[in-house]
Design brief:
This protein is mainly alpha-helical and 195 residues long. It contains four helices and two strands, in the order αββααα. GO terms for molecular function: DNA-binding transcription factor activity; protein dimerization activity; RNA polymerase II transcription regulatory region sequence-specific DNA binding.
Length: 195
């Protein structure tokens, strides 16, 4: 069975009001206790009934909670208050920033090709010009990066080519020295055989 929604309004019958007060007060204290245990929160609850009785709940000590609340309240009251003019200025600035954000988000959607049906021909032409300019800038940057990479690659290739030339020269010198040395050894061996 589904419970119906209860309309929250003052209960006219005083006896029903007392019963409801007792049940709801008990439930409220139970929830406050659970909240203090689950969340390690310091909770103080004071209820004045319509008969003038006072009911309270404190997760620690009501005195310490009230002192702490008094200190925080005093600190808040000591904060410098903004004048109405400053508040209005901040509200105005906030509103203009919200409008600017909204305008930029709409512009971004248009640049992404979204929500174009709402635009007039003049706005579409302007958008197309912006996209063309952006595309040209992207291509120019891409070309610049390609040129830099090509120059770097050519320099690297030239450096490797120079190293190869140097290695070939050294190899050639080593081979000439080895041939000369071998011929000298063969000459010595042939002299020994004749003797």
């Amino acid at each position: 069975m589904v419970k119906g929604k209860i309309v929250i309004r003052k209960i006219n019958c005083s006896k029903s009001r007392q019963v409801t007060f007792f049940k709801r007060r008990t439930g409220l204290f139970k929830k406050a206790k659970e909240l203090s245990i689950l969340c390690d929160a310091e909770i103080g609850l004071i209820i004045f009934s319509c008969t003038g009785k006072v009911y309270d709940f404190a997760s620690t000590s009501m005195k310490s909670i009230l002192e702490r609340y008094g200190k925080v309240k005093q600190e808040v009251n000591n904060l410098p208050c903004m004048s109405a003019l400053e508040m209005q200025s901040l509200r105005s600035e906030t509103a203009s920033l919200k409008l600017e954000i909204s305008r930029l988000q709409e512009s971004q959607r248009h640049l992404m090709g979204q929500e174009l049906k709402e635009m007039r021909l003049e706005e579409l032409n302007d958008l197309e010009a912006k996209l063309d300019t952006g595309l040209k800038n992207v291509r120019a940057q891409k070309d610049q990066i390609f040129k830099e990479e090509a120059t770097e690659l050519k320099e690297k290739t030239d450096r490797i080519e120079q190293e190869n030339i140097e290695l070939r020269r050294k190899l050639s010198e080593i081979m000439i020295q080895n041939n000369t040395k071998l011929k000298g050894e063969q000459f010595c061996v042939s002299l020994e055989i004749r003797v």
